[in-house]
Amino acid sequence: MNPVLETAERNEPFGNLEPEAIDKTWRDERGLKGWLSVTTHQAIGKRYIVTAFMFLLLGGLEALLMRLQLSSPENTFLGPGRYNQLFTVHGTTMMFLFAVPVMEGMGVYFVPLMLGTRNVAFPRLNAFGYWMYLAGGLLFYGAALTNTAPDAGWFAYPPLSGPQYSPGKGVDVWAQMITFTEISALCVAVELIATILRMRAPGMSLNRMPLFCWGMLVQSFMVLFAMPAVMVASTVMLLNDRTIGTHFVNPAEGGDPLLYQHIFWFFGHPEVYIIFIPALGMVSAIMEGSTRRGVFGYPAVVLSLVANAFVAFGLWVHHMFATGLPQIGEAYFTAASMMIAITSGVIIFCWIATLWTGRIHLTAALHFVFGFIVIFVLGGMTGVMLASVPLNLQAHDSYFVVGHFHYVLIGGALFPLFGAFHYWFPKFTGRMIDERLGKIAFWILFFGFNLTFFPMHIVGLNGMTRRIYTYPEIVGWQNMNLLATAGAFTILLGGIVFIANVLTSRKSGAPAGNDPWEAGTLEWATSSPPANYNFVHLPFINSRYPLWAGKADRGFVTGMRSDRREVLVTSVLDAEPHHRYVLPGSTIWPFVTAAGLSVGLVGSIFAFSGYFVASALGMIGVIGWFWPREPLEMKP
Amino acid sequence: MVLAARTPGDEAVTTPRVLDVSGLPAYDISSRSPLWLGQLLMCLIEGSLFLILIAMYFYLRLSVDVWPPPGVQLPNLILPTLALIPLIASCAGSYLASEAAKMNDRRGMLVGMALNLVLAIVFLVLRTVEWYGLNFTWKADVHGSIVWSILFLHTYDVVADLIMTTVLVVLVASGRYGEKQRLGVHVDSVLWYFLVAIWLPLYAVVYWGSHVVGAPQ
Amino acid sequence: MKRVLLLSSLAVAGRAQQTAMDPAGAPARSIAHLGLFFLALLTAIYIVVITFALLPLMRRHRGIDQEPLEGNHRPSDATETRMAKRIGLATVATILILFGLITVSVSTSKATSGSPPRPDSLVVEITATQWWWSVRYANNDASRIVMAANEMHIPVGRPVMIRGTSTDVIHSFWVPNLQGKRDLIPSRTNIDWIQADRPGRYRGQCAEFCGLQHAHMALWVVAEPPDRFEEWYSRQLQPAADPADPVRQRGQQVFMDYACVLCHTIQGTQAAGQVGPDLTHLASRLTIAAGTLPNNKGNLAGWITDPQSIKPGNHMATVPIRPEDMQPLLEYLESLQ
To answer: Which of B10, B14, B145 sits opposite A247 (nearest CB)?
Structure first.
């Protein structure tokens, strides 16, 4: 059992907090209304993760259908229309409905725990963000099921996605679904930044903050600057061109389809790092728990994360080398794209040093970390190749690129995520996950992944272009494609083993206790799963790994009121306590606001006036949300 | 007081250390509040949105030889420039209200917010007049599309903020407010300063753009 | 018969005809060499990095249960310093290697770029349309302009400047054996340089997703010795000869009577439609429907009868041609050498 909590429970006299009182204050309401009113970060984080996982399954299913179609030349399993819908929906689902939201969900769940506070800074905004995400996902799949799926690719280049070449509502649904998920990502970014900068445990100066929180902080800032770009691209440019007749991408009236590409990739490239940087945080956390030492070179890792974020905004043009840009620009973007290999390299080197000097406990989670290194570094190498303009011009839009970005995204984000599920499973559920099944799942997934995506590099250099629904026999691509299809079904098998493991372990796994890995960070200082308020007494720390520190370096906070949802606000750099702050309780208004806004935004797919409906309903929701509730704290 | 537990001498203490925060204030109506930070971040989001629109304006300008397109009247500069006066002055109202909120001065908050609202509405009236004077719409060509998008999005944000300010006026006037609402009055001013500040570059682009970087046929 | 043989030889040698790894010309060869250099260097680095990452598993300690925790969870300061030095060295090495790669890459980029155009270039204008390629050999002398579709012939050893654009959505011109890809964008003209140093037939296809039939938008580049090319070129300059035998005459009449004439051009006749490919020398081409089918009478008949089942969604109208008109039409089209 954790020493801090142990002492806290034994030595109650100095605390004026009664666990029963605080439990009552933080309890969720019952019933359907209560369920819709939840504002605790753990519940919302779990909702994000579970919902995103459902979308991962849907996106995976779409991938399997595509792999079946491509398994042999001139296959007629799917027609061109259906196939184009499938890869569009697959890419969109994985990027917008799975990868970003699942990272946000992990952040929402773990950041307050790791910081030693009780909730995120804006619990209602958090709930609102989740409902917007869910509404966006439901809109998108609702449209897909009524045969209104978009079919212009996940980046929807005009003029193909414009009114003339993509009639129907599919692309409009795509564009507005992005608005939903971007609102959600922005909500999480704002609340996580505020939480991280203002609500860390006293004593947790920025240089003592867990690396996962650093990852989420950096990622959240990237979201702030990147997401507005995609909203401009998808709604201001594309949707308005389609619905009200603006001319942003219409060359006939002075518009420019390349402008759309610039704006989209100004978002689209950082998007990869928005997905990947939290994963770096997860890898660091798993490594600390499994080598039982802090990550080597903490300042170097933090600086590299921050540098990655900056550089990521300066290399979007490497997605556009084939469009024919001036050569001087090409040289700059080649250099910038390769720069990111330096900072990423530093992080990898630091991890290797951690493994060398730590004492490795080879858990299932650590298996996924090793898998991550093997796969992601290879994706990084092909990334260096793609940064070179001449090589890019051959590889661009071919299966080489498909192979590359699956190595980077699945290797760089999904493997760490699976590792994180295994590592933090005891914290989520209070039970240990079956290590043996976890390792079996890892090996199947690792083998299946490489079988699927490695051949794509070869077949891509052999001229196979992206997004083709079939290919003739004479080009000789069938063997590699057959291998990839076999690999895809192997991945499915690995997924089934993982799901089975999760389902059985959460019922019958061994009880975990607070800190089964004897890790050092604060999420392990409380019960598993944590109570709604996270900690009976907020921790007070004096080192980077408080649970590894001597008793003299630990302590906890007293003097907080238990009859309202109080948290402690601390200073930005040194986390000196500044004031107490009262968080709102459960409320249905975020749900009502999101519902009203969603109705209007769905309407805006059909007519611009939908935005006014959205604004009116949204404003009503927001007024209800902020309407003063008794007690008004100190009356005037 | 609070940080007594962090003095070096305490390192030797073997019993768990305790940090008593009961003496700390329960709210803080200042830039140290998480809500203030949240509002600032919202401004950053909108700021990046508007900066992208400005970049788009110049990108589109540079991709054609004639700007604005034939038939588009150069915008009148007098009215929009005059409109800056009430707009910038309205920040004084915001400032008054936010300072009054810190001191729990109900009258000050009401006067400040009212001043803010009145001057902002004068600005909006002037903008509406100017907007009606444009001889093109968003449908005309890409110049129309970008100018209308900038005007629409900024006006939308201004109106949304004024509605929230109005709600705060109602709350404060009815006496139905506590520290949370005072904090609301305080951070509301942050958004207003931002909307005024971001208008200056937008104004320069929308009204001076076609004069300065334009090229007649 | 000759064509059947030719196509079967295409099928046999199929593997080598669309690949960046078997370059057939100067630009593609420079890129392939660059690629091999990158591949060799990066593979070596990869092996080193992964070896170092996996080595700690060889000397791993027993499980967490047996091993009591140390006080500060840190190795000695000496170890940490040693590690920091190694990481510093690795980082410096990374920077130096990347700098080298950038230099090599930029110089290859200059050497393979289409601008400035090579002197003595043959200029070919490629215009992409959903889902086929129009090929126009530019010439200052209007009588020397050649129009073709979905197939271009080039002389071996001579640089060819591609001036590419699109009439609808964004396409991308990619013949991997000859050069990297170049996007074809409406209301823009992009320039590229291809060159073949040995005779051969190289397949390319549209690389930027362009809608329903993106998969069936291929083209063939036929590289021939200069004299053979000139021969081909002068044949292509001729308008279609008026058919002599009655069946073909009947076939020409069928072409003019049905809707075919609205979309297609046959030089030397009144057919001057601009919507679909120029058919003046249809019979000389290797394939029909933008590389979808080998060009033979049976495929042509199937294509004319029901283009939508062969290439669903394509813009060729299904023209209901009476069975008795089909044979003469095919005979006529087959005569357009």
So the answer is: B145
C37/C104 same-domain check: yes
Cβ atoms A365, C66 nearer than 8 A = no
Which among B41, B141, B175 is the nearest to A254, CB-wise?
B141
Q: What is the CATH number of the domain that holds B201?
A: 1.20.120.80
The pLDDT value recorded for residue A629 is 82
pLDDT in tens, C12-26: 444 448 999 999 999
Are C72 and C104 within one domain?
A: yes
What is the complex's ipTM, to 2 decimals?
Answer: 0.93
> Structure tokens of A371?
């898998």
Please report, in tens digits, the pLDDT of each residue of chain B (217 residues total): 333 344 444 444 445 678 889 889 888 999 999 999 999 999 999 999 999 999 999 999 998 888 888 888 888 899 999 999 999 999 999 999 999 999 999 999 999 999 999 999 999 999 999 998 888 999 999 999 999 999 999 999 999 999 999 999 999 999 889 889 999 999 999 999 999 999 999 999 999 988 888 887 7
DSSP-assigned letter for residue A521: S
Same domain? For C181 and C256 the reply is no
- Does residue B97 form part of some domain? yes
- Looking at chain C, the number of H-run helices and the number of E-run strands are 9, 12
Q: Tell me if B8 is assigned to some domain.
A: no
- Residue C218 lies inside a defined structural domain of this protein: yes
What's the structural domain count of chain C? 3
Continuous segment of H or E residues that includes residue C180? none
What's the predicted TM-score (pTM) here?
A: 0.94
C122-129 and C132-137 beta bridge pairing: antiparallel
- Burial category of C147 from C-beta neighbours within 10 Å (exposed 0-12, middle 13-18, buried 19 and up): middle
CB atoms B18 and A14 under 8 Å: yes
- Reported as a single tens digit per residue, the pLDDT across A590-616 is 999 999 999 999 999 999 999 999 999
* Residue of C241 and B196 predicted with greater confidence: B196
User: C94 is in which domain, residue-wise?
Assistant: 26-113
C223, β-bridge pairs: C154, C200
Is C169 in contact with A348 (Cβ distance < 8 A)?
no
State the pLDDT at residue A241.
94
Q: How many CB pairs under 8 A join A and B?
A: 221
C102 with C76, same domain: the answer is yes
**Considering C93, C113, C133, which residue would you say is the last residue of a domain?**
C113
Task: Note whether residue B10 is domain-resident.
Answer: no
When divided into structural domains, chain B yields a total of: 1
- The answer as to whether C317 is a domain residue is yes
Is C17 contained in some domain? Answer: no
Length of chain C: 337
CA distance A444 to A426: 23
Q: Are residues C48 and C102 in the same domain?
A: yes
Alpha-carbon distance A143 to nearest alpha carbon in chain C (angstroms): 20
Does the residue C182 lie in any domain?
yes
Q: A145-173 burial string, b = 16+ CB within 10 Å, else e?
A: eeebbbbbbbbbbbbbbbbebbeebbbbb
Range of the domain at B191: 31-213
pLDDT on residue A632: 72
In a domain, B198, yes or no: yes
Domain endpoint, select from C63, C79, C113? C113
**A chain contacts of residue B18, beta-carbon cutoff 8 Å:** 14, 540, 555-558
- Taking contacts as CB-CB distances below 8 angstroms, the residues of chain A near C43 are 381
What pLDDT sits at residue A431? Answer: 96
CB of A63 closer than 8 Å to CB of A78: no
Q: Each residue of A290-318: pLDDT tens digit? A: 988 899 999 999 999 999 999 999 989 99
The reported pLDDT for the residue numbered C196 is 96
CATH number at residue C278: 2.60.40.420
Same domain, C135 and C221: yes
pLDDT at residue A3, rounded to an integer:
39
Q: Nearest residue on chain B to A197, judged by CA atoms?
A: B34
Chains interfacing with B (3 or more CB pairs < 8 Å): A
Interface-testing mutation among C49, C59, C171, with chain A (most A C-beta atoms within 10 A): C49
The length of chain A is 636
